[in-house]
Amino acid sequence: MATRVVTVFGGSGFIGRYVVERLARQGWLVRAAVRRPSRAQFLKPLGDVGQVVPLRAPLQDEAAVRDAVAGADAVINLVGLLFEKGRQSFEAVHFQGAKRVAEAAAAAGVRHFVQISAIGADIHAEAEYARSKGAAEQAVRKAFPDAVVVRPSIVFGPEDGFFNLFATLARLSWVLPLIGGGKTRFQPVYVGDVADAILRTLTDPDCAGKTYELGGPRVYTFKELLELLLVQIRRRRLLVPLPFWAAELEAAVLELLPVPLLTRDQVKLLKHDNVVGRGALTLADLGIAPTAVELIVPTYLDRYRPGGRFNRRQLV
Fold first, then answer.
1. Would the pTM count as exceeding 0.90?
2. Contact 24, 30 (CB under 8 A)
């Protein structure tokens, strides 16, 4: 059987590394399309020699994108931003980037396309992040009608940006903020389950043109997630409610940091629940049983416990 070729934009990211590993295990020849190939060399050992190839393909570079998808059987776009910085804006990356990749894939005759999005993606959303994700979905569907759209809730795993962030803050401060009172609801989904879902939609023709919302087996409030985290890292911290208006004022300052701890756009996102919608296609429709937070989080948060061996290299 001929070797299948897949181009994974954002292959070196949090979700990307799990997707690449699974693709390599299934025998795909993987092109990891990234901005900086030197930072994606760690992907090579995930497959046999020459099976995983990092290549430079910034989403803003139309020629590089065309070259990256040429001859591919499938394309997966996992590129996303948590905050804007310089030329890396939501408009440029989420919308224009996704549009460019989908159009190039369609022109190249690619058979399968998967677009990573997010629960809450909507062109009418209050937050620019969610609006740009919604616009990206529309652009991808227009260019590639059979594309599969995958919308996860917050994704957790050893390299995540949620539990690791708040565990770090808990090491440094006796107080953790409950933005909006900590009432916002989330349905955290394990990164391995997200990767499995992406591969399932990539290989099952019945998934073509559909949208899937991915969440874990339980819904938590923001406060409940922080309480769970503090139990796991064995630290007592004061959880202080912070009204949204106060959080926006604080974010106006914090978003000026090189790596913002909080932005005003993120505060807007926190005003809305992030859970799987009623009637949405889910992990269950893909034959995947969601993994509980309590089974995975303890395996990588022990380094934040008092006396734990904290290794910054574990955070990528």
1. yes
2. yes
